[in-house]
User: What shape does this take?
Amino acid sequence: MTQNFILETRGVTKEFRGFTAVDDVNLQVQEGHIHALIGPNGAGKTTVFNLLTKFLPPTRGEILYRGKPITGMKANEIARLGLVRSFQISAVFGHMTAMENVRVALQRPMGTSFHFWKSARTLDHLNDRAIELLEEVGLREYADVLTIEMPYGRKRALEVATTLAMDPTMMLLDEPTQGMGAEDVDRIVELIRRVAKGRTVLMVEHNLSVVSRLCDRITVLARGAVLSEGDYATVSADPRVKEAYMGSDAEEEASA
Assistant: This one.
């Protein structure tokens, strides 16, 4: 059976003044899957994300989206194609309400994302869709709450709502559960599972419990290169993966 890869990298490499942060990575993300990129600290996961979303140019290699090269495109151009990223640190406006944050995100497909000087009433036609998105991520009751006053886990859910406002075909989630307690982690796991229906998700995630519960396929990076790949049972049983994580833990303890 032919697999339908929505995103591919071919020999992607990133060097910084002689240091190879990403080394000949060949990544294939199947359409409709939740795919995780994992690895110990310093493995190159976020650098790969930065290459995919054009925050960094690769030194060598090619990136394809739906079979077409996007290596030379700009970040805003690939976002318009439906490849949309959230960030490791919550990227919402703290002194705006949840509703206002989503309305700002909804402006971008309209080509009015920078019209901050217009009256807020000109955005009232976006209210229904904003409420729908807030309901989708479980935040309807927070519509009129300033984001700065929302619990951390709910801020991350709001970030998912603003990402959904971009109408993504593929979502790239950078550490969606970082810094969360168990209750918030469970809530975000269910949220990702829900919003992934009909979409593709590529996520960087440290919490292996989250990965085991959510992901169809996992790529393990170590020292910038692909170490192992497969479903959770396959990669968790790989002795190279165990060594990479145990070695990282030992180094952290030694430096503590």
Notes: Residues 239-255 form the longest helix (17 residues). The longest strand covers residues 5-16.
